[in-house]
Amino acid sequence: MAVYAVGDVQGCWRELEALLLKVQFKDSDELWLAGDLINRGPDSLRVLRELRDFRAQTRIVLGNHDLHFLAIVFGGHSAGAKDTFGELLAADDVEELAHWLRRQKLLHTDFGYTMVHAGLPPQWNLKHAQSYAQEVEAVIGQSDQDAETADISYRDFFAAMYGNKPSHWDQALSGMERLRCIVNYLTRMRLLYPDGSLDFAHKGPVRDLPQGLSPWFASEPSQRDGETVLFGHWASLNGDARAPRCVALDTGCVWGRKLTAYRLDDGVKITQPAMIGQ
Hints:
With 278 residues, the protein is α/β, with parallel strands linked by helices. The chain has nine helices and twelve strands.
């Protein structure tokens, strides 16, 4: 069995299909996906339908674009001008796909690897991160029956998900503020202030860091409990975090660059050039 971890697909189904053919993906293999399955690219509906049918072979963590889609379906929000999942939102099976998607995880750990969309904040060890991710997963993955009596239902969560506050983790946080803060660290984080607060503005390369900010992965790898972290979200890194035991998977396929698969067995990266415009 081989395990392949793939970065932000963002609706680029043709490239993902070609990449799986290139690695000769077998029925015995596993496909790990580091979030942002949809949006910005042309085939979000196809991506969700195909990945849902893989089921037992996939390990998926949610990204900010996936959560944005769920906030539209379940939280009453509207799509933005740059969103490209109109076909998905109009599909007859959109709710079925959305219910399947909301039951995916925010963090996955196996074989000495931890996969998360944005990263692991240095103020959390792995056990913290797993526990906090599970708090959110328990809410957004509720059954409809449990949601009827929950203090915060999955629909409540998606209605109130958006926001940059609180931007600093505090164990004493509770309710929706706590859930939002956890989600922002796991799915939106790139840079941190010295006190661990999130910066939401900078999306560029590390060489252009604003003064006083540092990448989340600048912390000592020992703080990540010896795990190698697989993450996406930061396309301008172009797959190179230049940090011990951190593997950046977002190589900007939706921006015309390439889609990358990282083979866990030997650390080899296999790429598929973008086909957008072809």
